[in-house]
Please model this.
Amino acid sequence: MAIPRAAKTQRRTRIQEEKEERILGAALDVFSVNGFRGATIDQIADAAGMSKPNLLYYFRTKEAIHRQLIDRVLFTWLEPLRAFNADGNPEAEIRSYIRRKLEMARDYPRESRLFANEILQGAPRIEDELKGPLKDLVDEKAEVIRAWARAGKIARCDPYHLIFSIWSTTQHYADFDVQVRAVLGQDYAGDGRFEDAARFLEQLFMDGLRVRNT
Amino acid sequence: MAIPRAAKTQRRTRIQEEKEERILGAALDVFSVNGFRGATIDQIADAAGMSKPNLLYYFRTKEAIHRQLIDRVLFTWLEPLRAFNADGNPEAEIRSYIRRKLEMARDYPRESRLFANEILQGAPRIEDELKGPLKDLVDEKAEVIRAWARAGKIARCDPYHLIFSIWSTTQHYADFDVQVRAVLGQDYAGDGRFEDAARFLEQLFMDGLRVRNT
DNA sequence: GTAATGTTTTACCAACCGGTCAAATTATCG
DNA sequence: CGATAATTTGACCGGTTGGTAAAACATTAC
Model:
């Protein structure tokens, strides 16, 4: 008898593990471009090189695939922020946070776009995670930044908007990649633009946050 | 005989003008949330308070509606950048550019999201406009910024990435509105957050770009 | 008023959509 | 090998989708 999906506490087959990963990869391609509504199971099955019923043997619904992708992204996406260390050197912490976020935009653009698509569409499937775990983490780190400002280690500024501005500037290179390429032109299309972006953002945030004694 | 749509050089009826506007408004609502593929004509017709065939009497295809919306947005979206004045005071010009972009994110969030959706999906319908008019305009303004830097009026920096960072930070408040609200909490939901954002971004960019004599 | 034009509705279509089912096929294990 | 469980397939279903055709209805111009 065929038990549809990791139903019981049974261990997962090698094939299951492999196919599920292939499906998730294909689904990431499709969802990150078309969003949830715009993506079809056929597209995903096609990209994964299998038939639709076969795909549905591993994931019961379209939503189940999306759910799993979103859960993964939500977790890994916040890694850099979690690594933010209250006891470290403020300037170095912010600098390395920017660099890490930029590296993620470069190395995981599909994940960034998947998330962007979900937020753009009103985040109907992850509202709770945003208002819960995400908000809590940001609140915590905002307090760290505020403490640094009070101690005179960085310029006084709104920590929430600082975080927003780091998110937006870095993710821009993944989410708006097409536009960035179009504006910079073909010659610039290489990975060199990421180094230029890193240099620029570093200068912007470091000088923008340095305590000025005028 | 019913001539489907402004076919000949005929003038448009009062009813045509009015209905077309109502359709475009409704379509903006739907497209900006669901993207092109995710949106349906039925949804748009519903939102516009008319039947689907009636809507299709004014716009022959779903793509025609989207096309017109995108064209409008592309034009108005670049207004602030066009207003960028080479002969003005550099600091004041950049400051007012930021403010204007932020006001647009506040006042026209649907337009911002429509554009973001299109870019996220690889900009299949506006690639030419990006590589043509958009790139030309940015090239021109980048040269202005570069000249300011050479003249020592602002800090030396990559003008393209400066423009990208202004775009991303300001549009973030429209495109990622749901996330911003979730993180800031209900109490902050009012328009106050736009003033806070304006203050923060002003500080960030002004201090980040000021010439430092260290 | 009436004829021409402009607008709206009703009924419809073929393609596509998410998902099911049962049968056929393949892998695993004793 | 044979039996059992896991995987794959093809045929199918009800609902949705973008779009059409033609007739009914409303508006305007004379």
Remarks:
- Chain B touches chain A through 58 residues (CB under 8 Å).
- Residues 4-9 of chain B have pLDDT under 50 and may be disordered.
- Residues 13, 15, 40-42, 52-53, 56, 60-62 of chain B lie near DNA strand D (CB under 10 Å from a C1').
- Residues 143 and 207 of chain B are 21 Å apart (CA to CA).
